[in-house]
Amino acid sequence: MRLTAQDLYNYTKCAHRVYLDANGDPAEKSEVSSFVKLLWEMGLQKELEHLGTLAGTPIEDLKALSLQAAAERTDALSARAPGPAGAAR
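-> structure tokens emitted (89 positions)
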């Protein structure tokens, strides 16, 4: 199972939710409401707007990479980062 930021958030709301999402009977899951889908879309839009405010800051899009490749690229970028991220190496 791949752990996501949403899983961490869900765990703060219900300790059983992450387990049930991964192992529960899909037939028992309720439909995602259109309101929740709208909130997700608005959240993604907000993230994109925030990224736009970081002009001049190098940002690398890792979405197209596999999990392994993204992790390796993140490690490589962190290794040369100034400050605490780079200091951890």
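The mean pLDDT is 87.
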